[in-house]
């Protein structure tokens, strides 16, 4: 059993507001064996002198699209799945370099990609995924051209890389059960209009109460949960009232709806970096004009939504939602959130809060005995300068997943 002893470090444990000095951390196998404020004795361990760097939990991004290799999702559905899988593998490797040891895909990733991650066929973070997102006809996941709304024969059907169309309670039930059978850890639905979809206005309510309630019931039957794409107060309140556990984006939320989310203990996963990236790069990367026209309203409300959610006490996870080449900006979300939130709260969103969202509380997102040894070393203090986490991992010389150092430049 491989054993590693970390010494001469400053510790952010995923929970505290400050760094702990004079700590040592012992890893045995895939888990953390001991965390102590005194020297730890181990004759068999590889000793890592951290040189005063910060040791902290591996980062977790709760809103990634591994197969989102093109900014134009309509064009994405025309790409071969084999090509998408190879490109997805590269995106996942790049996330690992940035210190992300777990990601939750928010639509598209499948059991084949998950197996490749789990078995080490590709070097990648842990992958949690809901399979394809469920969308009604004309909803946020419906990227079909208007001339393609009828049924297809199998040889001509579009790929539907990110979402699947399901209308009515029976179709929703079948789609949920199908994704769970294929290993989905959660189920995603579209509850409001979106930016990337060509035809639905942001304010559009998607899915009926009965359809949402059906998805929630089926997910809970598997001890899973539903996450919902939703921007507006109406769409958010309705989804949470019907049992949705995780609201993605939530840019246009108001105080009353945030208070309701806090009361129901729902999570929010803002993804502000994607709107800045789209504004700057979207047209050049092929983002349709219809999508660019919808972007400004949600982008302008982004920072305000963090303040509203924070005041209400809603648990905020960390997400990015970046498509195509914009994925390189993944860690810029830290800088954006730091404009309105304390550094410790931002770090917790990407560690212990996201772990709770993934139903892995105490297993991921913390440096504590018994937790999985998903750890990163950081040059600099992210509580004093959260910018040390940005870039492509230049200031993260060590990334450990399950006790194995997948990146080691010490």
Automatic annotation (TrEMBL):
TM helices/strands, residue ranges: none
All copies of domain Amidohydrolase-related, residue ranges: 54-402
InterPro entries in alphabetical order: Amidohydro-rel, Metal-dep_hydrolase_composite, Metal_Hydrolase, Metallo-dep_Hydrolase, OTAase-like
Matching Pfam families: Amidohydro_1 (PF01979)
Annotated PANTHER family: ALPHA-D-RIBOSE 1-METHYLPHOSPHONATE 5-TRIPHOSPHATE DIPHOSPHATASE
Descriptive protein name: Amidohydrolase family protein
The organism of origin for this protein: Paeniroseomonas aquatica
